[in-house]
């Protein structure tokens, strides 16, 4: 099977088992909220971020509100997400730029987004893909881990992985690939003790097949190599 056909088979299985409609796991009602929630999600679970932002977005309703916030108070508001001092500083600085340079509206342009404090390509692409529906590849820990396990990329740098996925995945799959892979990573292809023997991608996954081979007897391995068993 060619790499192109194998990748298409993976995408077909993703569409079969996981929702095609893009589902963002971070609660938000507008671009600014998603931008801030994504900044907070670094080294933090989406569930914890959603708990924090429920009160945070009731307290601060606009870029101006965040820009004018007392930094120490904002630190306490986001403390439970971890790295709270750096996150609070970035949120305040980012919101100030949005308020002063963009009239309070989050920009769509990738370069403009990545120039904002605390915003890298991942955060920018989350906003571009989920809010503005601009085809974007989001490389988070799940996408990085699983794309490497599937052999779609050999890179470990997130930007290099993003470039690989943009080359190899059809553009119409870019946005939903992230949310589908997150769902798969949470349910089956976990970072530790992945459920390879229960995985619908096993036949297409070099990592899973290597794990399977490790568990087989020498006789079974020989039979598999001769084509007597799948």
UniProtKB/TrEMBL annotation:
Molecular-function GO terms, alphabetical: 4 iron, 4 sulfur cluster binding; class I DNA-(apurinic or apyrimidinic site) endonuclease activity; DNA binding; DNA N-glycosylase activity; metal ion binding
Enzyme nomenclature, EC number: 4.2.99.18
Binding site for [4Fe-4S] cluster: 189, 196, 199, 205
Record domain HhH-GPD: where: 40-187
CDD domains (alphabetical): ENDO3c (cd00056)
GO biological process per UniProt: base-excision repair, AP site formation
CC cofactor note: Binds 1 [4Fe-4S] cluster.
Coiled coil, from the record: none
Reaction catalysis annotation: 2'-deoxyribonucleotide-(2'-deoxyribose 5'-phosphate)-2'-deoxyribonucleotide-DNA = a 3'-end 2'-deoxyribonucleotide-(2,3-dehydro-2,3-deoxyribose 5'-phosphate)-DNA + a 5'-end 5'-phospho-2'-deoxyribonucleoside-DNA + H(+)
Family classification: Belongs to the Nth/MutY family.
Biological function: DNA repair enzyme that has both DNA N-glycosylase activity and AP-lyase activity. The DNA N-glycosylase activity releases various damaged pyrimidines from DNA by cleaving the N-glycosidic bond, leaving an AP (apurinic/apyrimidinic) site. The AP-lyase activity cleaves the phosphodiester bond 3' to the AP site by a beta-elimination, leaving a 3'-terminal unsaturated sugar and a product with a terminal 5'-phosphate.
Record-given protein name: Endonuclease III
Organism taxonomic ancestry: Bacteria, Bacillati, Bacillota, Clostridia, Lachnospirales
Gene (name only): nth
């Amino acid at each position: 099977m060619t790499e192109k056909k194998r990748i298409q088979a993976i995408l077909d299985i993703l569409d079969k088992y996981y929702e095609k409609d893009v589902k963002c796991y971070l609660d938000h009602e507008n671009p600014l909220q998603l931008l801030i929630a994504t900044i907070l999600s670094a080294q933090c679970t989406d569930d914890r971020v959603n708990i924090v932002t429920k009160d945070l977005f009731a307290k601060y309703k606009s870029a101006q509100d965040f820009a004018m916030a007392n930094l120490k108070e904002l630190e306490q508001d986001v403390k439970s997400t971890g790295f709270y001092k750096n996150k609070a500083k970035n949120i305040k600085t980012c919101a100030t730029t949005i308020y002063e340079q963009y009239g309070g509206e989050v920009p769509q342009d990738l370069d403009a987004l990545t120039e904002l404090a605390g915003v890298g390509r991942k955060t920018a692409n989350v906003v571009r893909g989920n809010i503005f529906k601009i085809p974007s590849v989001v490389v988070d820990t799940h996408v990085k881990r699983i794309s490497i396990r599937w052999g779609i990329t050999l890179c470990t740098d997130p930007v290099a992985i993003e470039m690989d996925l943009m080359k190899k995945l059809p553009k119409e799959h870019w946005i939903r690939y992230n949310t589908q892979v997150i769902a798969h990573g949470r349910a089956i292809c976990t970072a530790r003790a992945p459920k390879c023997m229960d995985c619908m991608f096993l036949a297409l996954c070099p990592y899973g097949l290597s794990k399977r081979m490790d568990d087989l007897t020498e006789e079974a391995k020989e039979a598999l190599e001769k084509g007597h068993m799948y």
